[in-house]
Amino acid sequence: MSEHTVSAYDDELTAMAGKVAEMGGIAEKAFADAVSALVSQDLELAKATIKGDVRLDSLYNELEVKLIELIVRRQPMGQDLREITAATRIANDLERVGDLAKNVAKRVIAIDSDLQSKKLAIGVEHMTELALSQLKQVLDAYARKDAEAARRVQEADAEVDAIYTSIFRELLTYMMEDPRVITQCVHLLFCAKNIERIGDHATNIAENVYYMVTGERLPEDRAKVDETGAV
Amino acid sequence: MSEHTVSAYDDELTAMAGKVAEMGGIAEKAFADAVSALVSQDLELAKATIKGDVRLDSLYNELEVKLIELIVRRQPMGQDLREITAATRIANDLERVGDLAKNVAKRVIAIDSDLQSKKLAIGVEHMTELALSQLKQVLDAYARKDAEAARRVQEADAEVDAIYTSIFRELLTYMMEDPRVITQCVHLLFCAKNIERIGDHATNIAENVYYMVTGERLPEDRAKVDETGAV
User: What is the pTM of this model?
Assistant: First the structure.
């Protein structure tokens, strides 16, 4: 393979990783916007977040086509193949993060009233900060091809799950104490679940980054096993 | 390309579709088992369903690797490439149907008491029958490469969404009437949401079958647009 072809190939792999990073930035912003819209009951921001998800979906579809073309053209092996496969999977997780952010934004419109409890809002915000920082860290780990950083992200998911569980219990208590808040609390429960699932996608991405870099699978940890936990 | 190579290639594509069909059968059974476990509070069946999901995950991982190898080796174009891409996406949707069935099974264990309302159980069962028949029909459409049948599955998703919405409202009413059923109703809400999402995956599969057969995109219909509906 000539120098030129090789470098052209490297450029394609770099461009591919760049597209995934672009999707990551959009997914992060959608998630952050959806939760601030929720906490501040900002219907306009919620509507903008819902509209914005189309962009992430089309980026994903473009990228998927490009990656298959790349495989067909380059017939990659080993590390190159792992990088292309990881990009496909990570883009898929980011597209789903966008969907989950959109779900939260739709709940903002369904709730359409101030949150009954500042304490609850704080819980949801805290959970969001954690999940968002997980997402940022794993996208950095992907950009830097840092397997250890990816492993740390996987480990930290248990914390997001723990906050989710406490929010879940708190919401049930509010509902039992005051039937008038049941509808709002149910929407908040679904929001919290969506945020917890965003944390799970950060974990999936971490596992794909780790495999891409090392060729080894990260052992699934407790948090990951509980991904579909029943609370 | 020699006769032999061509027929070997056809065999590979047939084997690929067979693996997707196998995943489809397992996902259907997991879904049906999870809901009967829920309705009859059968903890053993619930646990078996949770354990069984591992099989679907490993089938998906094997298939994904096989499909990439196939693309690398055969460099497919046009219809062949569409069939391989569709298989990848449909397998991904089926793996997620398995996760959703597992979620329902985990809720059975969390509820761990008889359902308060037979009427509710009937609603959930009815929704399940519809979503399950959507899943069966779309897998048949995939096996027969029947674009029209796939289009009908997409159209019918609105009905699943409608039943979900009525169950959602009914559950809220129960909770407001009797705080003692709140915890159970919340778990049932999440179960109903998971079943509604299984219907959405049947719709995704329908869109991929339609594209695979025709090379054209099905216009997203109302039901699909509401996939992440806020109730």
Answer: 0.90
